[in-house]
Amino acid sequence: MAAVITSSAPDEKHDASLTPLSNGVEMVSINEAELESHEVFKKTEDGVNFRNVSWPFATVIFLKAIFATGVLSRHYVCLSAIRLKQVSLGALDTAIIQGDFKTRHPECHTLADMGYTVGGPWLKELVGALYLIAYVLCSGTGIVGLSVGFNALSDHAICTTWWAFLATAIITAAASIRTLRNIGWLTWIGFLSIFLAVLIVVVGVTTVDRPAAAPQEGDFDLGYHVIAYPTFAEGMTATATIFVSSAGTSAFLPVISEMRNPRDYRKALYICMGLVLCMYLSFSLVVYRWTGRWVANPSLGSAGGTIKKVSYGIGLVGLAVSGCLYQHVAAKYLFVRILRNTRHLQSNTLVHWGLFITVGGTYSTVLTIRDAYATGLIGSAFSCEDNSNSSH
User: Fold this and answer.
1) Could you please report the per-residue DSSP string of 245-299?
2) pLDDT tens figures, 102-128
3) Which ranges constitute the DSSP H helices of the chain?
4) Quick check: helix, strand or coil at residue 385?
5) Which distant-in-sequence residues (6+ apart) come within 8 Å of 361 by Cβ?
6) Looking at residue 343, what DSSP letter applies?
7) Which of 85, 132, 218, 244 sits between 20 and 30 A of 353, alpha carbons compared?
């Protein structure tokens, strides 16, 4: 009896007897074509080709999504090496599961689509709302981080609100780039920027007599602890900070959707997570060795004012690109959600451009961030106080 292969389109069948599958190669080709037909973005030479991200570009985008504004926090330095490894390995395992699920269900663009596959429409809406809120808040950390850098370089020359407004404008302009391939060029520069900024501080703390945050006269104790006993609030804040710093793996899914060959995902993933673990471990252990409990907040100020200005001057681009990437992910979710399965998704139509500029171009995301600041959910950007401690 001839086997029948059913395609993704309803009521379409192909008689396998017409195309004998002698060694399985044809079957593999058909399966790959079947999966490709379900991809969110199709490879095309007409209109907008989103599918042009190579795996080296994906690696750097992943690195920038993980190694971002979390390095500004003092808690990532003070957390134990064991906890760092646990969180990093947990993030790696999560990313592998996501990637495998995405391979079997290529129509999934974000976690919201995975929620639909697993639990139906109600779970899709729930996960989608949480996903959007999470990346709006992450975009806010990019705005706050960039405003901290401006304050540090200017010695708090003007009200922090104005620096936050400038940071929002810069990040929004960068996030409005349509494809991740083009944003990928920014992530190369952004990753090198923030990496060098942190490296300068790591080297700097080994050259000063005492940490910048420690008493500048008399004896002081670095406060080393093999096993620390923080308060519940301190312990949870430190743990949550490093968890969030390594929890950007949900941003990997939209990148896979724009990869030229999604099967190369694991190459990018393993390189990214290996480098992130090595950087977090080496940087945090060195800084903790030389500063102990006197890590400055933000941490880039741990080696003194001069080195802080140098590191922020170099790291400004990296801080901006972090916010840009998070905001782009949130905006692209809305963009794909509205235009999926329409010709406007990959065509340079008026609808495509109009929606991208207003919604996909991060307008609604910026409004949500603004409301979050204004209502106090993220308050520091609406305060004139110096958030870089440069005036102290």
Assistant:
1) HT-GGGGHHHHHHTBS-GGGHHHHHHHHHHHHHHHHHHHHHHHHHHHTT---SSG
2) 988 999 999 999 999 999 999 999 999
3) 25-37, 55-66, 75-78, 81-104, 111-119, 121-154, 160-175, 180-205, 232-245, 252-257, 265-291, 305-339, 350-355, 363-374
4) coil
5) 175, 176, 331
6) G
7) 132
Q: Looking at the chain, how many residues does it have?
A: 392
Tokens of 365: 């995301």
Whether the Cβ atoms of residue 252 and residue 269 lie closer than 8 Å to each other: yes
Say how many CA atoms lie within 13 Å of 28 toward its Cβ.
4
State the residue for tokens 């609100």. 161
In the block, tokens 């923080």 appear at 230
Report how far apart, in Å, the C-alpha atoms of 309 and of each of 134, 155, 290, 297, 391 are.
30, 9, 20, 14, 13
| DSSP secondary structure letters along 237-259 | HHHHHHHHHT-GGGGHHHHHHTB
Type of residue at 357: I
**70/278 Cα distance (integer angstroms):** 15
Q: Which amino acid is at 379?
A: G
CA angle 250, 256, 258 (to 5 degrees): 125
Q: Does residue 284 contact residue 76 with C-beta atoms inside 8 Å?
A: yes
E runs forming strands in the chain: 4-6, 13-15
In a 3-state reduction of DSSP, which class is residue 184?
Answer: helix
The pLDDT tens digits of the residues spanning 1-49 come to 344 333 333 334 344 333 444 444 444 455 666 667 678 888 877 778 8
pTM: 0.80
Rounded Cα–Cα distance for residues 180 and 262 (Å): 14
Lookup: tokens for 235 = 């312990």
Residue corresponding to tokens 């519940």: 232
136: its two tokens: 């709006």
Count other Cβ atoms within 10 Å, centred on residue 236: 11
Phi, psi for 384 (deg, rounded to 5): -80, -5
> Which of 215, 194, 204, 222 has its CA nearest to residue 324?
194
